[in-house]
Amino acid sequence: MLSKTEIKALEGVCADDVRDAAMFEIMLQTGLRVGELIELTKEDVVWGDGQDTLSYLIVDGKGKRVRRVPLTLTGTSQLAGGTVAQALAEDPA
């Protein structure tokens, strides 16, 4: 578990890179592992209506188990901005 000081330090490191900041925020808010995050696609996001239903991710975890991971409002706004989905769709090569 990260302390508030450690979280602020990591947020500071990511501050100049929108993609890294968004990915860090999603991992922080959901507890996803790096491997789970980089495997996400747009089809893995289920959008809630912002009132009665929450948004969540469908994640293939360890042992190929599929689980639903709820998103906080911060995580939802990061994804809604397209930053993470766009970044994950890019070819790193």
What is the element layout, followed by pairings?
Elements: H1 4-14, H2 18-30, H3 34-38, E1 45-46, E2 56-60, E3 66-70, H4 73-80, H5 83-89
Antiparallel strand pairs: 1-2, 2-3
Helix pairs in contact: 1-2, 2-4
Summarize the structure.
With about 90 residues, the protein is α+β, with helices and mostly antiparallel strands. It has helices at about 5-15, 20-30, 35-40, 75-80, 85-90; strands at about 45, 55-60, 65-70. About 45% of the residues lie in helices and about 15% in strands.
What is the CATH topology classification name? hpI Integrase, Chain A
CATH class wording:
Mainly Alpha
- Overall mean pLDDT stands at 80
| β-strand amount | 5-15%
Instruction: Report the CATH superfamily.
Output: Intergrase catalytic core
Overall outline: globular
SSE string, helices as H and strands as E: HHHEEEHH
Number of strands: 3
Computed structural class? alpha+beta
**Strand line-up across the major sheet:** 1-2-3
What is the percent of helical residues? 40-55%
Give the count of structural domains: 1
Number of DSSP helices? 5
In terms of per-residue confidence, which ranges show pLDDT below 50 for 5 or more consecutive residues? none
* CATH architecture annotation: Orthogonal Bundle
Report the radius of gyration as a whole number of Å: 13 Å
| Major sheet characteristics | 3 strands, antiparallel
Please report the distance between the alpha carbons of the first and last residues.
32 Å
